[in-house]
Amino acid sequence: MRKPFKTHTFTMISNFCMSLNPKRKLTFLIASLFLFLSASAQNAAEGEKLFKDNCQSCHAINDKVVGPALKDVHKRRDEAWLIKWVKNSQKVVASGDAYAVEIFKKYGSVMTAFESLSDGQVKSILAYVKQESEKAPVAVTASASTSSTASANQATNDSMKSNINWLLIIVVGLLFVVIFLVFNILETVGRIQGHDVVNWSSINGFLMLAIGLGGVALSIWEFMIHAPLTVSAQKPASEHGPGIDSMFNITLLFTGIVFIITQVALFYFAWKYRAKKNTKAYFYSHNDKLEYAWTIVPAIVLTILVINGLKNWNKIFSKPAPGTANVEVFAYQFGWTARYPGADNTLGKHDFREIGKANALGVLTDDPKSADDFTSSEIHLPVNKPVTFKFRAKDVIHSAYLPHFRVQMNVVPGLPTEFTFTPTVTTAEMRTQLNNPKFDYALLCNKICGAAHYRMKVTVVIDSQSEYDKWVSEQKPAFTKSATIETPAAETQTADAGHPVSNKPLAVK
Amino acid sequence: MSHDHSHEAHGHAHVHHHEENFITKYVFSQDHKMIAKQFLITGIVMGVLGMLMSMVFRLQLGFPDMDMAFLKPFLGKWISVDETTGFGKLDPNFYLALITIHGTIMVFFVLTAGLSGTFSNLLIPLQCGARDMASPFLNMLSYWFFFLSSLVMFCSLFVEDGPASPGWTVYPPLSALPKALPGSGTGMTLWLISMIFFIVSALLGGMNYITTVLNMRTKGMKMSRMPLTIWAFLLTAVLGLLSFPVLFGGSLLLVMDRSFGTSFYLSDIPVELTGGIERTGGSPVLFQHLFWFLGHPEVYIILMPALGITSEVIATNSRKPIFGYRAMIISLLGIAFLSFIVWAHHMFITGMNPFLGSVFMVTTLIIAVPSAVKTFNYLTTLWRGNIQFTPAMMFAIGLVSFFIAGGLTGIFLGNAALDINLHDTYFVVAHFHIVMGSAAIFGMFSGIYHWFPKLFRRHMNKAAGYVHFWLTFISAYGVFFPMHFIGLAGVPRRYYANTAYESFDVWMDVNQFITICALLGGLAQVIFLINFFYSIRKGRKSEQNPWKSNTLEWTAPVEHLHGNWPGEIPTVYRWPYDYSNPNYTEDFVPQNVPHEGQTDENQEFEHPHPTT
């Protein structure tokens, strides 16, 4: 749930336009209280984390997102069915299960197969969903009893809202027609009198000066207020970041100066040289020297920027040093999975034909290199160590965007892309620096990829070396042979499918 | 030069007026003035549609917790209403459809066809001194293909799965896989059909514009005496003719991938998403190259006519020659040429080889030079002028302001290294809405106010024009300026809501402010629409040359004649910018006024620009 935001500036309009439902906030408060009192808290707490990492981008408890709202899902189907569904919904649909077919038709999109989740983990998620489902009605009754008058007011507001909207539109429309008619009368009177009733030239001239120059002042003011809130104002958390930032500042300086000078000149001239009676403009058709000057000066400035930009660009995309750690970042609708190469520092082979069969990533378990690979729904990286993200997409183009590190690269199906960078600030350090104990780095999707594009993110944690080593030691290999044996159905299917024509070497079986 | 006498004969043929019925006069008209009006009105209708869509998604972005149930009557199932609370929410898929169709409509239907179609059609024959377009029939076809294309696009809004929604750039695989996005089904098919008709229309129009400008100028209308509007339209048409076919090819391959099982753009996608056929070997980046090979010139196809219109309006209303006429032409040529070799700056981080990125960064930043020349020349034209604040002039000044503001942010985005962190954020949204959205639409408004008397033989209301200008100007900056900061905070574009990220919460106020500005801007357009449609019927009757302008269209009678001029087409003796020439008492000297001692036979005779 989102932090309530400040609405003071637009209280009036906000009250009118939106219904930031007070009930919901209360729901949340009471719900969180309930969470801690709950008996199944342990299970549900694990489930909450899993839910946030795996399900949240497409599902919510009370709202439909891409998939259905999950409230009371445990009442709709039994646990065994749900586990099967979560692990591979397409298999359930293919088996002809009427309910599954209906759901698939209704929502029209393929749910990601979460074969990597164990039965226990799915159960935890279900426990969390169950707990959240039970919370909602309790909270509503609570809010209803505590603030019955408030909600009664709300109700009257709601019923009036649609009427007011229409009335307002009609009133505004009529107002415009009236204003327009007044203007028409003004113009007619002006024509009869032989001169304008209103001296538009001086009014417009004055407005040019006031709004033009005032606008420049306002933009500088906004810069002072808003620039500190941007990520560009924060210390970059990667090695190449300061290079980009300094170039940004140089560009900002040049363009800022040009912006102010030219805008001021434009509006000042408009005011200064507004039409006056009995004046004639100054005939000035060209001046070669001037024109050379303002061709050459921008050319020089741009050359400086180009050289600076090339330097940075080439440095950022220079070949990574041999031995740089690799992490595969796998994108799908709508989430991210990181795959680590494990002790051998080599990622096992993968094949898109195996996606959703042997495992969700299509990693070939026959490749001995994949035996020690492990996956994580949170990206952990050690500080001050260069790392290469190897990007792979399952379905459509995504873009891995890590604004704090000044890193972005598209993730393209069928086209391997990568980005090498060195994180320099740990999550803990950034928290103290920003004075925000809840801060987390994020990798967000920045290429339109479907309905839940706006929720597709993953947390990035920059650890100190010791923390990182500890985290790695806790991870379990995800693609061991034994893991495959657990799902024999998948194995047979793979063998049956058999792809004789392939442009990628399949591991020998 | 190009004053062949067949035009005269052509002109005389029209002295005997053949009877025209309603259909040939108003519907399947072959008269360039009527076709211009058809383009304009269709463009305005589409513009209103695109604007209303932007209002809906701005409400969603500014007030994500708003009850949208009141939109249910218009949007139907795309507003999901909670049965118990009656609370309405916009469907996330439909949000994507809204931004997609908004972008498509504004870029292609309003700012390409609406702007170029209207003013190229109106002004090329009138300012060059021709009876009509080189091929009036193809010209008519051009409009009707455009109309068909608009119709198909409009119909796609009512498709069961929703209209196309992968963004106006329609990148595959998203646009090719209906299982990844409902809008990539029938909606996307209709989008592609519409776009193919649109391209046909653009090509038919473009061929006509080029042929007419090159072959049908009147006696004495040398290339070096052409108004800058005509130069702009000519180069725009050349750009369109060279780049639209590439999009046509790109779209066709996408049609093949979607409907016929090919894999031009698809590779390594699990079969359950691709419709059962294994697709390998294609590249999604190929589509991006083909798309942006049109897409970038397209930006200048939108902007150059607006710059041409502005040059004309600013010179006329400053009562001064445009400063550096030759430099203006050279910079237009420079922009036109460079616009073909910068396309991949949209693709710095799409997986393209980084070396290509550095090449395209260099060409991209070079294009800032001719743009800077244009800006400084506009400013110098205003300097010591005698500025008439007609609504057209105000919009032209507004264009220069937007051109500066949006052009400068282009220097950030054209720099590949800076683009890493700015790509696809709101910074980009701010940049292109200012430089090609606002600037071009201001150029279009400027043209509408300036040539309304030529189009409809009446004047628009001046005061309403001023109110329209100020409200639009303020709200456009109010909408797009703060977006730069939102972008710098790393907020991606095309997000249904910014609620999933706590760090974006600080921008909630700003998003509300933007939405309120957008609504204000929308209201301002209501004033324009009332003014426009009222003035067509009831506006003050226009005199022949209301702005005391030099160009040829104002030598034609107010009444619309088939063939434009009742007698001979006027001969041109001078450049179009003799305003406030100290050798004359009047502050304007139309192009058809000979210099002292200049005759038709002695065409080359021309006084150099007076030195004062």
Commentary on this structure:
The complex is a heterodimer of chains A (509) and B (612). Chain A has 509 residues and is of the alpha+beta class. Chain A has 3 domains: 8-146, Cytochrome c-like domain (Cytochrome Bc1 Complex, Chain D, domain 2, Orthogonal Bundle); 201-316, Helix Hairpins (Orthogonal Bundle); 325-497, Sandwich (Immunoglobulin-like), CATH 2.60.40. Chain A has helices spanning 11-17, 22-37, 41-55, 73-76, 79-87, 89-94, 98-107, 119-146, 148-193, 200-226, 241-272, 288-316, 427-434, 465-474, 481-485, 488-497; strands at residues 325-332, 335-340, 374-376, 379-382, 387-393, 398-402, 407-411, 417-421, 441-445, 457-463. A 5-stranded mixed beta sheet of chain A has the order 3-2-1-5-8, with no helix packed on it. In chain A, β6 (398-402) and β7 form a beta hairpin. The longest helix of chain A is centred in the middle third of the chain and has 46 residues, at 148-193. The radius of gyration of chain A is 31 Å and the shape is extended. The model of chain A is unreliable at 1-23, 35-39, 137-160 and 483-509 (pLDDT under 50). Chain B has 612 residues and is an all-alpha fold. Chain B has one domain: Up-down Bundle (Cytochrome C Oxidase, Chain A). Chain B is built from 18 helices and 2 strands. Chain B has helices at residues 6-13, 22-27, 32-62, 72-75, 92-128, 136-155, 186-215, 228-259, 271-274, 284-318, 325-338, 354-366, 368-382, 391-413, 416-422, 426-456, 462-488, 508-538; strands at 79-81, 88-90. Chain B has a two-stranded antiparallel ribbon with strand order 1-2. Chain B is globular. The model of chain B is unreliable at 1-16 (pLDDT under 50).
Features:
heterodimer; A: 509 residues; alpha+beta; Cytochrome Bc1 Complex, Chain D, domain 2; Helix Hairpins; Immunoglobulin-like; five-stranded mixed sheet; 10 strands; 51% helix; 11% strand; extended; disordered C terminus; B: 612 residues; mainly alpha; Cytochrome C Oxidase, Chain A; two-stranded antiparallel sheet; 2 strands; 1% strand; globular; disordered N terminus
